[in-house]
Inverse folding.
């Protein structure tokens, strides 16, 4: 009688173990896919927020540039998580027409650009993490990076 009881217990334990194994085999890919989707959504959200910030800066730079010297404006921008770098004008820091945010994503760095018809230059090197930043956008008769050209200079306050 005792032997029969322990065999029944062992059989029940084995059946439960097999059932749990099949459940894990089915759930593991679903959980993996869910984590990948959440990660992709976070990257897409960061890129979207960076695009909004770049477009806002480009719009304000265009407005200030059209008004000319001594026009200036302070603007609040929301910087997303995973920000790697920012470029105003060109990546080398000279006068250009692009505002670029570099975002770290699962697929590597993603470049988010906003174009402005006005010459822009400046530096947002103080931006190292997500948050809200106050940025000074001012029209200059002679740009600090090239005194021969007028530009809109963008810097953190």
């Amino acid at each position: 009688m005792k032997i029969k009881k322990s065999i029944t217990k062992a059989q029940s334990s084995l059946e439960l173990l097999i059932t749990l194994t099949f459940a894990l085999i089915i759930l593991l890919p679903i959980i993996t896919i869910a984590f990948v989707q959440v990660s992709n959504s976070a990257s897409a959200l960061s890129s979207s927020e960076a695009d909004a910030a770049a477009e806002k800066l480009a719009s304000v730079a265009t407005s200030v540039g059209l008004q000319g010297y001594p026009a200036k404006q302070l603007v609040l921008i929301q910087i997303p998580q995973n920000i790697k770098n920012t470029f105003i004008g060109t990546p080398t820091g000279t006068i250009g027409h692009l505002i670029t945010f570099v975002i770290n994503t699962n697929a590597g760095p993603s470049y988010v650009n906003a174009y402005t018809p006005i010459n822009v230059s400046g530096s947002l090197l103080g931006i190292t993490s997500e948050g809200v930043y106050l940025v000074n956008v001012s029209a200059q008769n002679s740009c600090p990076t090239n005194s021969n050209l007028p530009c809109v200079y963008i810097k953190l306050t």
Residues 49-156 form one domain. Helices lie at 2-67. The radius of gyration is 27 Å.
